[in-house]
Amino acid sequence: MDRMTLLQEQLPRLRRYAWVLTKDKDAADDLCQDALVRAIDNIDRWQEGTNMRAWLFTIMHRLFLNSTRRQRMVSVEDIAPSQAVQPVLSRQEDAVHLAEVEKAFRTLSHDHRQVLHLVAVERLRYEEAADVLGVAIGTIRSRLFRAREALEKALQSSNAVGLAQDRGLIPKHTDQGGKTQQRVYRA
């Protein structure tokens, strides 16, 4: 498969990540376009056999950081329900739980949303997420642990914990008998 075809296959993921970074449809479209222009201009720098998605996310992330520094603004990220990868929900209850998970996700810090999105939604390996964000792998592990812990705590009072566990956003906890347990957090 040629490089341009591989790049085209990543467009939906790029748009989704741009939305996570900007929380604005127009800004996300602009960021996605800028990243694509940069990627096409430098397509010869992408190495065959490496993860193109991680390479593209790195380009997009750096463009976003540069624009944020120029604007001296702090962005808040979110996954729009229309942009998120969502399986077909068979029950109304699942839709309600998914909305609760999205609401709890929005309460996470910028760094926690980013790492959780890259690892749990985009399924990047820790090493790839570290490259995208320009941080050490230990930082990724730490942020991911704290993000999952904060998300689980935010969902504790709802019935959406099981859905978040099923989607891989937070881990399932089991006792010695193999039964799934929820952690109890104290305020």
Can you tell me about this structure?
The protein is mainly α and 187 residues long. The protein has two domains: 1-78, RNA polymerase sigma factor, region 2, helix turn helix motif (Rna Polymerase Sigma Factor, Chain: A); 88-187, Winged helix-like DNA-binding domain superfamily/Winged helix DNA-binding domain (Arc Repressor Mutant, subunit A), CATH 1.10.10.10. The chain is built from nine helices and two strands. The protein has helices at 3-9, 11-22, 25-41, 52-71, 92-106, 110-121, 126-133, 137-155, 161-166; strands at residues 173-174, 180-181. Strands 1-2 form a two-stranded antiparallel sheet. A hairpin with a 5-residue loop joins β1 and β2. α3 crosses α4, α6 crosses α8 and α7 (126-133) packs across α8.
How does the SSE layout of this entry go?
Layout: H1 3-9, H2 11-22, H3 25-41, H4 52-71, H5 92-106, H6 110-121, H7 126-133, H8 137-155, H9 161-166, E1 173-174, E2 180-181
Antiparallel strand pairs: 1-2
